[in-house]
C-alpha cells in the first residue's frame, strides 16, 4: 500500500495522537482507502509524512492560502498522485491554520522517533528540499530549520552538516557535506565515506521508516555525498 493509503487508514482510525493525529482527524474521510488492502498503517511512515507536511506548512508564509508553488514543492518531495494533491494541500492548509506552533509537531516527532536520529535527520532533509523549492533557502527558513533541529536534539554542528548538502553545488564545502574536518586522514576519510553511503542506501531508509515515495531525496543526498568525496579524493590524489 502507498503512503497515501496508509494516511487514509490512520485518518479513519485515528491511530496517532497529538497534533499529528489531530491533523489526520481533520482530513478523515477525504483520503481514499484501498478496501482491497487493509494493511495496518505504518506509524513511522504516517508520522514522518504528516510531520514533514505540517512542519513545511509552518515554515511557509502564514498567509492562510495554499499557493501552487507550495503544493508543487510537496509534489516534488513525495511522489503524490494527482488524485491526492488536493488532500495533501488540505493537510498543509490545516497545519498553517492550526493554533499549535511548530514546536508541538517537532516535539511529537522527536518523541515518536526517539532513538531513531537518522529518521529525524531524514525529516530535516525533506524540509530543506521544500525550503529550496525556489532555488534558495532564505534566512528565515534556515533559522526555522535550525530551531526544529534543536527540538530534535541536534547540535549546531550537526545541523550545519545537514545544511551543507543543500547549498548550491558550486558553493559547497565538500568537507562540510561529509561532516569531517579537513585534517582527517585518508583511511579515516574512506571509512567515513563508506559508512555515509551505507547509512543512506534506499534500503536503510525504508527500514527505519521513510516512505518509498521519499526515496528520490535519498538519491539526491547520495549524489551530494559522492560528489564531495570525489572532489576531495581528486584533490588528495587518492
TrEMBL record:
<dbReference type="Pfam" id="PF00226">
    <property type="entry name" value="DnaJ"/>
</dbReference>
<protein>
    <submittedName>
        <fullName>TerB family tellurite resistance protein</fullName>
    </submittedName>
</protein>
<dbReference type="Pfam" id="PF05099">
    <property type="entry name" value="TerB"/>
</dbReference>
<dbReference type="InterPro" id="IPR001623">
    <property type="entry name" value="DnaJ_domain"/>
</dbReference>
<dbReference type="InterPro" id="IPR029024">
    <property type="entry name" value="TerB-like"/>
</dbReference>
<feature type="domain" description="J">
    <location>
        <begin position="173"/>
        <end position="237"/>
    </location>
</feature>
<dbReference type="InterPro" id="IPR007791">
    <property type="entry name" value="DjlA_N"/>
</dbReference>
<dbReference type="InterPro" id="IPR036869">
    <property type="entry name" value="J_dom_sf"/>
</dbReference>
